[in-house]
Task: inverse folding
């Protein structure tokens, strides 16, 4: 299958936006996993004084997780899909959260002349971009030295068992549910994009090649263990001993 990319993928998300929250709510642990990954950023003082970027925010589930993990932070959330952003904007948000219609490749514009971001959170993003290395380079460019990075991503462990489980769930649940809503192409893309993307060790190595430091990988809990992982890293400065034990 040819994967959806760029404008085609954005349009598919636009079309699916009206049912997206309902379908993800059927996934046990979906929101809990996002929150766990956001909390793994270990932002100090509830994020007070920090400016965070939610890269690929969708309908705002990842933004909500980031806000819960750092309730005193300022958050800029961006997404390439206008339909998903409309769903996000329809929800209640504090004034310190703003949304911008930008692709991952346009992320430099998210700063709007401000200082670099203190942390970047990217959920379910990197397997959907055409050039993940270029996007990682842009992320490093907008992240302050020593700033924190977390990706919450479908990235298989490399075990045949986890690959088989993912295929079975997609065949039995994900693609049929997406077909009922009229969004079969998007959910077929989801199935195949996960298989085609880096395994967890490969994506960790990609982060290191991009110049990020202190790279580590942690699985999520529940049925998605070995299928979804949190990837944590820093921008150029290794973490201190105090931060490492937090």
Result:
């Amino acid at each position: 299958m040819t994967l959806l990319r760029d404008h085609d993928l954005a349009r598919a998300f636009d079309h699916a936006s009206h049912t997206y929250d309902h379908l993800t709510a059927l996934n046990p642990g979906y929101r809990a996993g996002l929150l766990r990954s956001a909390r793994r950023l270990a932002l100090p003082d509830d994020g007070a004084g920090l400016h965070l970027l939610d890269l690929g925010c969708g309908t705002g589930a990842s933004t909500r997780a980031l806000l819960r993990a750092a309730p005193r932070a300022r958050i800029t959330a961006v997404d390439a899909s206008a339909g998903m952003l409309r769903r996000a904007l329809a929800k209640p948000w504090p004034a310190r959260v703003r949304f911008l219609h930008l692709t991952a490749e346009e992320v430099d514009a998210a700063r709007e002349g401000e200082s670099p971001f203190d942390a970047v959170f990217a959920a379910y993003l990197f397997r959907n971009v055409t050039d993940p290395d270029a996007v990682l380079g842009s992320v490093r460019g907008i992240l302050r030295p020593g700033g924190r990075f977390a990706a919450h991503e479908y990235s298989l462990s490399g075990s045949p068992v986890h690959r088989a489980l993912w295929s079975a769930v997609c065949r039995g649940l994900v693609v049929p549910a997406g077909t009922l809503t009229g969004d079969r192409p998007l959910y077929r893309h989801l199935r195949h994009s996960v298989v085609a993307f880096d395994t967890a060790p490969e994506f960790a190595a990609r982060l290191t090649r991009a110049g990020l430091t202190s790279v580590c990988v942690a699985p999520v809990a529940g049925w998605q263990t070995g299928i979804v992982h949190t990837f944590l890293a820093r921008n150029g400065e290794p973490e201190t001993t105090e931060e490492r034990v937090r």
The first strand starts at residue 51 and ends at 55. Residues 241-246 have pLDDT under 50 and may be disordered. The radius of gyration is 17 Å. DSSP finds nine helices and seven strands in the chain.
